[in-house]
Amino acid sequence: MLYHKGSVVLTEDPFVHVLMQSEREQRCDECLEMCDKLLRCTACKMLYYCGTKCQKKNWKLHKEECPLLKNCAPKVPTDSVRLLFKLIQKFKINNPKDVGINGNTETRLKDLMSHASEIKEDVKRNEEFAKICYTLSKFIDGKKFELPPLADVLDLFGKMCINSFTICDGEMQAIGVGIYMNGSRLNHSCLPNAVAVFSGKQLTVRSTTDIDADEEILISYIEQLGPSAERQRYLKSSYYFDCTCPRCRDKDLDGKMLACKCPGLNCEVPITTQGALSCPACNADLSATYWDEQEQAALKAKQLIAKSERLRKQRDWDSLINFDNDPLVRRLLHETNVYRVTLQMSAMDGYINLEQWDKAVESARFLAQPVMSYYPPNSPMIGVHLMKLGKLELYIKQNKSALQHLQQAETILKVSHGVNHTLYKDLTSLLDQCMEELRVTLDQS
Ligand SMILES: [Zn+2]
Ligand SMILES: [Zn+2]
Ligand SMILES: [Zn+2]
Ligand SMILES: [Zn+2]
């Protein structure tokens, strides 16, 4: 066996990275760690550092960006423009030391895939590229920074699109974007055997199952709460390949993910066969209009999801808690349907942030089952959800149940994050706290 479950497959710092705009002033722009007291770059007043060590490290590339940022302040170019700018800087410097080494494999900037020919044919990507080039030229604004020939910029843009990782915090929320030389070599599966987690900007790929020497190490490039057709469409349009992984061939799972609500009175059984003529449990008639309405409901739910993502960024929790209340969606989609699960997750985060604990616990409890069945085994998403649930139960003093969920979370996070990750350490203190409370209750009774 090559890797036992929970082993470190690789660990590396990014080749280039940027902190997401929404995280600015909360995290260090270099190491991406949360920090109460941040130093500000005195020249551009735009970037922040946890200390002089990070500032110095960042300066190597920031020194060219700094006067440009100062020039366009208070506007800041988008994260993609900033990342592309850094890639261009690296391309121009062309340092022979810029190489990712993993075992016997070396990766350089020139080795990263760019899918240049597909990108040239891709209307949407072309529009995006034109937009980025426009912002980039505005950003440089005739200053002394010289851009390489357009063909090279396009190639770097392609490399950025194909190889970028979303950098997440321990709870799997996006905080930045980066390019990792070794990480970018890993292929995708919707049923992966490894996972990418981050400590600050550092990437660690860990095995989530036992992996034999002849098995390929696979990670997931995408959010997995979606039916195969949607995942495949996204992978094709973003990475130009057709996913044929075991999950994409699992029609039963798709049926569950798209579960519909039966129109029969008090029937709770999900309908998992698209286009079925009647409910397998109560025999309720499912007409053609029912399936037309299904389509509308799914469309509506997807619109709501897109909207909820925007509101989440704006931290508009009051609106988010109402997102699973759309009458059409509720009438037609079963509560275990992935779209509703996604909306309920937003609502749960709303309740948590509004400190409505009872409601939050109720949603977290309900979501545990779908989360466990829709994410692959040992997915960090499952561990993070169970930890949230346990933590909420601890707040409302349901300690026995809290202990059970925290222990379940521990089994998974040990594999997905590893025992040295700060999230795992937070979990251990929650477990200690929970056991202490249980001991006190036992003493009192
Ligand atoms: Zn730092
Ligand atoms: Zn600066
Ligand atoms: Zn797949
Ligand atoms: Zn029924």
TrEMBL record:
One Gene Ontology cellular component:
nucleus
What InterPro entries does its record include? H3K4_H4K5_MeTrfase, SET_dom, SET_dom_sf, TPR-like_helical_dom_sf, Znf_MYND
Q: Known PROSITE patterns for this protein?
A: SET (PS50280), ZF_MYND_1 (PS01360), ZF_MYND_2 (PS50865)
One of its Pfam families is zf-MYND
- Organism domain of life: Eukaryota
Name the record gives this protein: Uncharacterized protein
Q: Which organism is it from?
A: Owenia fusiformis (Polychaete worm)
